[in-house]
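Hi U.,

Before I forget, here's the chain from the pilot set. I'm dumping it here mostly so it's searchable later in email.
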Amino acid sequence: MRAHSQMAAFALAALAVAWGGPSGAAEVTKSAEVQRTGMLTVANTLDYAPFEYLDADGKQTGIIIELAGEVAKLVGAKLDVARTPFPSMIPGLAAGRFKVAWETFSATPERLKQVDFVMFLKAGLAVSTSPDKKASFSGDTPLCGKRIGVSAGSASDFLVDKLSTDCTGKGQAAIEKSVFNSSTDIVQAVLSDRVDARMDDATASSYFEVTSKGQLVVLPTLYEVAPLGMAIAKDDKETADMMVGALSELFKNGTYKAVLDKYGMGAYAIKEPYFVGTMEALRAD
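Structure:
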């Protein structure tokens, strides 16, 4: 956790020197709505830390909220976060209630029939363990012979079975899987040495590393990696172009990476933001 904080501090300090604010930023073409209203409105749930949530003082914060604020600065608009339940976001875009639903959507064929996406992050599954055991997870097959905790019925549950089969196929010890009903139960099992590690959602694991002050540390390998993005109304090219253009500037000037590092999510950065209107446009990295 300390390393993450130091990296974020250095990155933010460098940013303050290298980027003198909006006057030094590249020109980003505004959508007609932003030009007309002077507002950048994004739908968001505000209930999924570390991406979006209300802090102890009730202030909107998190990765997406901070990035949205920086995009608003680039287009000279005031940010308006419209709190919206997740199931209402795609229907809201289709109905024209807002132009951007900024969440961590996975692109699927069904969703792409209704909306387009601007990808800005990646995620997957990750393994985390106690600091004293981290060095024991090494080599090409670090999980073989280890005791791994997973949530019942989760993607991790099925993936550990597959990885264990790979272990035995290579003549190594199988993974000893333990199934729990919640992530909290798995964390307690690792801390009490009932299992060696947990496999869970990568972003949630990294956020726990930060908020727990390093009680568990995330191993570098990501499994089942998938890009994540915000949703844009189908064929709304000017809004999509504005968001890709603004995010591209944040990638270039270091703001994007600094915000991710601040929340311990630097490992989930992608190389550049990009538009997705079909499944064929998705990138592996």
